């Protein structure tokens, strides 16, 4: 734990100056979200920078998960949900009518709060994405993709002898890393994580956090978390949401040591939320 | 007399309840909180002690006493009944009873009238004694329970115990009835197999159950080969399932994953109305609408379609079981967690990919069991087949011809005036037994499938 803490810190510190200058991978401008007549997000402007971990924090119901789900249009599955404003991935507005949601979600993958492996074998869980996107031309390529994804998710050593066993038989932490491997397998550019550790014990959480830090090299990661310590440990940029408003965003160090807004200060010191 | 006593017992139980409850309040005084059982439990305990033992004795008495009376009458008139057959003795008693209690006697004569007087005297005495005994038992029970209303008495435990026994008796009744029906099926079938060899019934290819009533009767071969019936049943079931499975399943998928909430709110109840249509209505729909339609269509294409065809019956039966399949499958598909749908969508799968590759495999056990339940429903269905598929026991797998099924034959074997010990009527029991075994196996398999794979996705 302590070692990883240092890792997280040193990465954040060393990149401190650079974090703000990294290329913008995704950006939201004047994003408003309505669930029926209730407005969940108000004019959110937020940039997601490449090869960074961006943490979205805030009390329950503040709209951080809603914003996350806008980034790969998971909100489309909710009938009453309406999104206005502009969210760009690279230079395309993902809410443009000619954007294919299926393609978008292949580029912007998602890991959910509760591990949700399919009731299939470990192998099939990982192979699912590459199969539906036709990413492997033959069995050998598929095998390679599966093994690589499992290795990147740090799960390969634990499961290499039982790839045929159901993914639902793994422990909670392993299941969540399986879900991360499953997301990696389709080679996304951005990975969205919705409280990925909230259902895990501290040891499994440490492993997943370690993994997130490693994945940053190749992917852009956005993580919603309730744990301030987790945000401080894994992220380089932090955005604080409150009542549907983006209160403050900036380098994680700055947010946690020297917040500009009083509400941020109150939240991170535990005065509410 | 019986009903009067019963009413008295009920009233006594109610009175006892309130009396015991009040007594318990009195015993408790102002320390109700520390009392072991609430006053209402003491009341219930009292009601049980007043009513139940007396009621049980009454039941036994009601069963035993007529026999005792009969025995006494017969011993008194042993001269009159000496040398009579059992049937004649019964007739004697029946007439005596009829005269005594104001019925119509078949052969009234002085002896029987004398016996009738004896019977009414005995019956009166019996009633008086029974009333006395019952009331005594009820009073004793009441006094016993009354004496046990104390501050620490465990009335709650007694009431709970009595309730448990009541529940046990109810479930025992259900189980015993089933066992009784199965036993009767088995014993009658054994009698049938005494007349018709087992292998001839199970493997014979010819079904013609008309047995000769007279020695010189023509056209009564009495062949009991049930294979044509099994084949007919199978054929119609297969047709029904091949209609119901795709339509029902796809409808379920549409309802659960595609339809908007408004459409769903309307469509589901409408589909369930389909399940509420009486099968006889489906029957004449099949016979009067569907079968002629198939025949005419077939003729226009140059096919010979009999006006009572397996196809018509099977298709209508399929329509009948659509709601089974769709409603059960819909429940199963809905039970697949939303998180799996999200997980699949999050990987960029389309809706149909998600359904085909994630939802259906996860829901498969439930869907299989839904289908098996639908199959056993189809196998047991009678009315549609009687009306639309005909009675001819053809051994054919051509769906355009008339076939018949096990259930239909059971109906035709038993309607009308029949001897109850002929091979013809007994054959119905053997067929019933086969049907019972098949549906039992299907239900068993369905249950096992569900148990084995249930909640695999958790």
Distance between the termini of chain A: 25 Å
Oligomer: heterodimer
* Unreliable sequence segments of chain B: none
Strand coverage percent of chain A: 15-25%
What is the number of helices of chain A?
Answer: 12
Q: Give the rounded overall mean pLDDT of chain A.
A: 87
Rg of chain A, nearest Å: 18 Å
Number of domains of chain A: 1
Name the overall outline of chain A.
Answer: globular
Give an overview of the whole structure:
The complex is a heterodimer of chains A (273) and B (458). With 273 residues, chain A is an alpha/beta fold. Chain A has a single domain, classed as P-loop containing nucleotide triphosphate hydrolases (Rossmann fold, 3-Layer(aba) Sandwich). Chain A is built from twelve helices and ten strands. In chain A, strands 6-7-8-3-9-10 form a six-stranded mixed beta sheet, sandwiched between helices. Chain A has a four-stranded antiparallel beta sheet with strand order 2-1-4-5, with helices on one face. In chain A, helix 9 (202-215) links the parallel strand 7 and strand 8 (220-224). In chain A, helix 5 crosses helix 6 and helix 6 (139-152) packs across helix 8. The longest helix of chain A is centred in the middle third of the chain and has 14 residues, at 139-152. Chain B has 458 residues and is mainly alpha-helical. Chain B has three domains: 2-153, no CATH class; 157-195; 223-453, MetI-like fold (Orthogonal Bundle), CATH 1.10.3720.10. Chain B has a two-stranded antiparallel sheet with strand order 1-2. Chain B is flat and about 80 Å long. The mean pLDDT of chain B is 86. Chain A binds chain B through residues 72, 74, 77, 79, 101-106, 109-112, 114, 116-120, 128-129, 132-133, 166, 168, 179, 182-183, 186, and chain B through 260-261, 337, 339-350, 353, 357-358, 361-362, 456-458.
Task: Please specify the SSE layout and strand pairing.
The complex is a heterodimer of chains A (273) and B (458).
Chain A: H1 2-14, H2 16-19, E1 24-35, E2 38-49, E3 53-57, H3 64-70, E4 81-89, E5 92-93, H4 101-107, E6 108-111, H5 122-132, H6 139-152, H7 156-159, H8 172-184, E7 190-194, H9 202-215, E8 220-224, H10 228-234, E9 237-242, E10 245-251, H11 252-257, H12 262-268
Parallel strand pairs in A: 3-8, 3-9, 6-7, 7-8
Antiparallel strand pairs in A: 1-2, 1-4, 4-5, 9-10
Chain B: H1 2-28, H2 39-76, H3 78-81, H4 86-101, H5 110-147, H6 155-195, H7 198-203, E1 207-208, E2 223-224, H8 227-258, H9 261-276, H10 279-300, H11 310-335, H12 338-346, H13 351-380, H14 383-388, H15 406-414, H16 423-453
Antiparallel strand pairs in B: 1-2
Helix pairs in contact in B: 1-2, 1-5, 2-5, 2-6, 4-5, 6-16, 8-11, 8-13, 9-11, 10-11, 11-13, 12-13, 13-16, 15-16
């Amino acid at each position: 734990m302590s070692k990883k803490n240092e890792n997280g810190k040193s990465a954040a510190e060393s990149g401190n100056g650079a974090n703000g200058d990294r290329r913008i991978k995704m950006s939201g401008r004047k994003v408003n979200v309505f669930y029926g007549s209730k407005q969940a997000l108000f004019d959110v402007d937020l940039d997601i920078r490449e090869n960074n971990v961006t943490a979205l924090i805030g009390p329950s119901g503040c709209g951080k998960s809603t914003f996350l789900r806008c980034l790969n249009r998971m909100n489309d599955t909710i009938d009453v949900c309406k999104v206005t404003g502009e969210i760009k991935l690279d230079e395309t507005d993902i809410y443009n009518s000619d954007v294919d949601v299926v393609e978008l979600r292949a580029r912007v993958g998602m890991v959910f709060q509760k591990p949700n492996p399919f009731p299939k074998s470990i192998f099939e869980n990982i192979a699912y994405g590459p199969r539906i996107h036709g990413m492997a031309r033959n069995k050998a390529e598929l095998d390679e993709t599966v093994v690589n994804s499992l290795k990147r998710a740090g799960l390969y050593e634990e499961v290499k002898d039982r790839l045929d066993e159901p993914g639902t038989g793994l422990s909670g932490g392993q299941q969540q890393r399986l879900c991360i491997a499953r997301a990696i397998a389709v080679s996304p550019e951005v990975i969205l994580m919705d409280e990925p550790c909230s259902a895990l014990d501290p040891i499994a959480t440490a492993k997943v956090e370690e993994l997130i830090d490693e994945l940053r090299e190749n992917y852009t990661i956005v993580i919603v978390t309730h744990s301030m310590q987790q945000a401080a440990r894994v992220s380089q940029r932090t955005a604080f949401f409150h009542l549907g408003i983006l209160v403050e965003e900036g380098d994680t160090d700055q947010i946690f040591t020297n917040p500009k807004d009083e509400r941020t200060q109150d939240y991170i010191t535990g005065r509410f939320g | 007399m019986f009903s009067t006593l019963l009413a008295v017992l009920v009233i006594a139980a109610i009175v006892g309840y309130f009396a015991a409850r009040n007594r318990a309040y009195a015993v408790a005084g102002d320390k109700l909180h520390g009392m072991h059982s609430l006053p209402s439990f003491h009341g219930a305990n009292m009601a049980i002690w007043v009513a139940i033992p007396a009621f049980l004795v009454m039941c036994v008495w009601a069963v035993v006493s007529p026999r005792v009376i009969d025995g006494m009458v017969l011993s008194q008139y042993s001269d009159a009944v000496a040398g009579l057959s059992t049937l004649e003795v019964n007739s004697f008693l029946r007439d005596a009873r009829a005269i005594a209690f104001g019925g119509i006697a078949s052969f009234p004569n002085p002896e029987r009238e004398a016996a009738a007087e004896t019977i009414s005297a005995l019956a009166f005495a019996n009633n008086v004694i029974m009333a006395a005994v019952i009331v005594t038992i009820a009073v004793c029970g009441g006094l016993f329970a009354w004496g046990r209303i104390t501050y620490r008495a465990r009335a709650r435990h007694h009431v709970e115990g009595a309730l448990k026994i009541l529940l046990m008796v109810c479930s025992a009744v259900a189980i015993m009835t089933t066992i009784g029906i199965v036993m009767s099926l088995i014993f009658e079938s054994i009698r049938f197999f005494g007349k018709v060899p087992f292998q001839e019934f199970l493997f014979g290819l010819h079904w013609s159950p008309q047995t000769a009533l007279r020695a010189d009767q023509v056209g009564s071969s009495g062949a009991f080969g049930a294979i044509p019936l099994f084949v007919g049943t199978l054929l119609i079931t297969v047709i029904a399932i091949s209609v119901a499975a795709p339509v029902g399943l796809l409808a379920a998928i549409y309802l659960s994953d595609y339809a908007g909430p408004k459409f769903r709110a309307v469509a589901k109840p409408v589909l369930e109305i389909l399940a509420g249509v009486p099968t006889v209505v489906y029957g004449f729909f099949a016979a009067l609408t569907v079968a002629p339609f198939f025949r005419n269509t077939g003729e226009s294409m140059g096919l010979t379609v009999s006006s009572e065809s397996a196809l018509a019956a099977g298709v209508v039966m399929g329509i009948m079981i659509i709601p089974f399949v769709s409603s059960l499958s819909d429940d199963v598909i809905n039970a697949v967690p939303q998180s799996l749908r999200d997980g699949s969508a999050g990987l960029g799968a389309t809706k149909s990919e998600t359904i085909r590759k994630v939802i259906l495999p996860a829901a498969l056990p439930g869907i299989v069991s839904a289908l098996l339940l639908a199959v056993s429903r189809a196998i047991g269905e009678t009315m549609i087949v009687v009306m639309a598929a005909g009675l001819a026991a053809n051994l054919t797998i051509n769906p355009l011809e008339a076939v018949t099924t096990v259930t239909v034959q059971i109906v035709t074997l038993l309607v009308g005036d029949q001897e109850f010990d002929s091979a013809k009527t007994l054959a119905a029991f053997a067929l019933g037994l086969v049907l019972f075994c098949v549906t039992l196996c299907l239900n068993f398999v369905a249950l096992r499938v569900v148990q084995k794979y249930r909640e695999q996705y958790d």
